[in-house]
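Q: What does the assembled structure look like for these inputs?
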Amino acid sequence: METFFSFLQKRVDDCSSLLCVGLDPHPSDLPVPTAEAARDFCLRIIKTTASYAAAFKPNAAFFELYGPGGWVALKDVIAAVQAESDRLGSMIPVILDAKRGDIASTAEAYAGSAFEHLRAHAITLSPYLGRDSIDPFLAYKEKGVFLLCKTSNPGAADLQDLPVVVGTDSHPPVPLHVHIAHLAQAWNTGDNIGIVVGATQPEALTRVRLAAPDLWFLVPGVGTQGGDLETALRSGLRTDGKGMLINISRGISRAEDPARAAAEMRDAIINIQYTLKH
Amino acid sequence: METFFSFLQKRVDDCSSLLCVGLDPHPSDLPVPTAEAARDFCLRIIKTTASYAAAFKPNAAFFELYGPGGWVALKDVIAAVQAESDRLGSMIPVILDAKRGDIASTAEAYAGSAFEHLRAHAITLSPYLGRDSIDPFLAYKEKGVFLLCKTSNPGAADLQDLPVVVGTDSHPPVPLHVHIAHLAQAWNTGDNIGIVVGATQPEALTRVRLAAPDLWFLVPGVGTQGGDLETALRSGLRTDGKGMLINISRGISRAEDPARAAAEMRDAIINIQYTLKH
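A:
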């Protein structure tokens, strides 16, 4: 059966890339802060970088900001990735970065919004409400979810690093993000769960990879936020040399030549993958 | 200075009510599942129950589901509460139930969406990304946030009940939701942070009230989800007999006479408050 991660795997092989291009139209990056400008900003990035992108990741916040027009723009952006996929003859998955999380029937509505209305292929979710808040998304067998595990911001430490006692007292406490990684690995019976693990703390990437040897990681934090690409890949790649989607947003969108920046990033990843393998 | 909770306190006193009316237009409750039907469903509830409502709580998911039209409807719904407030001469706060949570500049965009575009007075947030994900919302001094603490669904146990080790090892572990309550109480220096605590586990309400003696609780789970009103109030009211907003959604929207259901719920709360005081 086709699953989100079988689609992603195919795309990764088609384009030899682990690069996820983030579509974050910050108002300050736009000539005028409007939904149309946000859309045009993203369409330009999509057009110039699609050949090098294993996936695209639009962030809902930068569209929601404009109300109804923003949602028109977001749908257009996702449709534009689909059009590029058709042109290239290789499906480029769209991960909607929305970090949603709500209880059963409400989660169903969010899943309907992301997967049916917007036609995204995967979505980021907060795990705070537990397994039943994720199930309505998993019910879409060909779609995927990425659970927040260890994010790239300083405040991540407030909750995600807390030592939690799991099971019997004889086991030493583990950081909450490691427990999330264990849960995600255990819950991934349908090949449709990945996790978000920031590159800003490579030792966390190592710990999480140990806890979840099979999962795909969506990895923000390389570049602008200070994470080092080689250290991140060394810490988090799976034994098959894959399993990480390195997200770059501003490093591409603010580059003088976004196509070149994306190509260089793809090649830098390939080069490190090769070095690690040999 | 006026703060969200000073507005709420005034409204609670104006209408002698701790009732929060949930605006959850489930598609199955609508004659046809459209944005317009969702809006009309909510407008009817607002019109008939405003006199008894300390606050209204629309859930973003049931609007987002319809894309751009849904966001038009959500804005209309919030504006309708404002119009009822003007008519009654008493401001009824709108809590946008959106459970957002993202890092700095992205959180700013969500805050702009909720507070500037939609003109909600408060928003529910996931605490999973930590303090810096909440700051952009707190920057709006007259607006409020309710952090998810202990939700009313079964899956809440997966993370929120985990024993976490805080500070030195000499302190025994506390459930994660109790730690969130401590953090929220400590962070509430601007009178603009409340927490979400479900009524389905009254012992959690008691624990959380001990950890956060001053905070307002937004309390889902009474009625349809099985929480008992009197037990909840007994477990969670502040020493001043306030500090809880009891959210009712389907218990009002599916009642034959929503106005009467809201009035009865308000009176039941008053009656229990009185009994507990004497």
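Chain A has a mean pLDDT of 96.
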